[in-house]
Design goal:
homodimer; 321 residues; Nucleotidyltransferase, domain 5; 5-stranded mixed beta sheet; 23% strand
Chain lengths: 321, 321
Amino acid sequence: MKYYVGIDLGGTNIVAGVVDGNYNIIAKASTKTNCPRPDREIAADMARMAEEAVKNAGLDMGDIEWIGIGSPGIANSSTGVLEYSNNLGFRDTPLVDYIKEFIGRDDTPVFIENDANAAAYGEYVAGAAKGARNAVCITLGTGVGSGIVIDGKIYSGSNFAGAEIGHTVIEVGGAQCSCGRKGCFEAYSSATGLIRMTKEAIELHPDSAMAGMAKERGKVTARTSFDCMRAGDKYAKDVVDKYIKYLAAGVTNVINIFQPDILCIGGGVCNEGDPLLLPMKKIVAEEVYTRDSDKNCEIVIAKLGNDAGIIGAAFLGKANS
Amino acid sequence: MKYYVGIDLGGTNIVAGVVDGNYNIIAKASTKTNCPRPDREIAADMARMAEEAVKNAGLDMGDIEWIGIGSPGIANSSTGVLEYSNNLGFRDTPLVDYIKEFIGRDDTPVFIENDANAAAYGEYVAGAAKGARNAVCITLGTGVGSGIVIDGKIYSGSNFAGAEIGHTVIEVGGAQCSCGRKGCFEAYSSATGLIRMTKEAIELHPDSAMAGMAKERGKVTARTSFDCMRAGDKYAKDVVDKYIKYLAAGVTNVINIFQPDILCIGGGVCNEGDPLLLPMKKIVAEEVYTRDSDKNCEIVIAKLGNDAGIIGAAFLGKANS
């Protein structure tokens, strides 16, 4: 059996995992990222977590084929430099070189990739997009993350900053997005977007079930509208319908551009299951350019959750082969 | 010198060209498509035009490395079957086999590709996108055509129906598109979209210069608003500004997804030059996700015009190598 290390570098946690040739995570180690602090210090902790995970797996670093890193920001997979990360406060950090230095083994290759791309690759090699030739993965979380895999290769554009599907405008002049644009897919289809729509509806309908639930729970969450819809609230159903309308628009856009075998959707909002997915798929089927074709993209739910990033990172050596 | 034949199959004309190894068209032959008629008849005329072009070039079919076809619709480049074309009324036409049969030379390979993809590939190998690793080409015509070239390969998705960037919604619930969706990029950024916006403005401002020009010329064209803007009409400038706003939104979307080295824009509307391009590029530069990066996509104007399709088709053997 061959073994690989994947490191998921986040703004909050550093998680390293040892993954076996069957795509199973057999050991993990994690620590806080503690941003902001110097990039070398964070790299030292990443190397330490890799070593700890390897030890936890009962292995030696010599047993590891390669190490892969998933990082927020613009990760240049050719040079190994994390060119820019707003979350981490890094600019032109030679992260691959740092990890090599701290691990101290010249014969262990180290790879780096953007975290959303790494997670998409994880679903592609071992999760819901397994078996696809071309796949696009979208994660509905605080933002809308996305990754594109074409013919087994991660596509990140000529400057390694592409695949920002969340930052495509689906309503010119629409809701403010964190990226500075107005009307981005992310501004509507993220959990944050759903919460915004729910709050707007509560303001318009202060006597609605949503308003009551928000008061009772002390906050509005991405589940408020779905929960109240299930309890029969008409205004909540309007919010859910609106959310699904925008999500379907963005998903249809992605299919019309990429026509992948599989479009994989993940993130907390997907836990809503069929009440979200069935009406969304229905709109996509009606709207997609190939609606009359018998070969259409399959829409599936992500399988690996937070492990996608570690598994994807662990197999970056394959993506780069 | 090596020679190649490219055939541009359109709803109106069939044009075949002989292209030399320097990407120059050295001879052409053309005939009317005369749709609708049986696909075999049209294929026979395509083969005849190829032979005529070769003869016009002073060559023999034995001098030709391969033949490439650019066709409207879903062209399966693996099987050589034109699976569907609304324009031509074809379904599952084995176009590559037909051409091989009519040409009667087993040793001359024949390739097929969607026409917009072939035109994009033409700009990629010999035109405005030459030298790029990744390029996206957009044509602002009756519709908004587009083609994607990644690492020298044409990207058309898993079912050969992708790259329909014109059919991505940029305004949910917006203007009706020919594809059935509402608010597509094409509905705003095609010449047809510009004419619609101009007509809407004329209706609102029947005393405007645009209304006068429309009456004088007997029709509204894609140039009416630009011409009247240059003559100082405020309402015309509003139309142009609106057109540019939507075009910039769609172009920024493409860059945020693909981050190509080069985004190439063609089609008649581009003849407006700087009054169109400079404000559009300014908005894109302000809005693009990598606005703070020093590596940004270059936006250029297509060079090859209608020849792009023939040249791209002629080099399909290279795209498929």
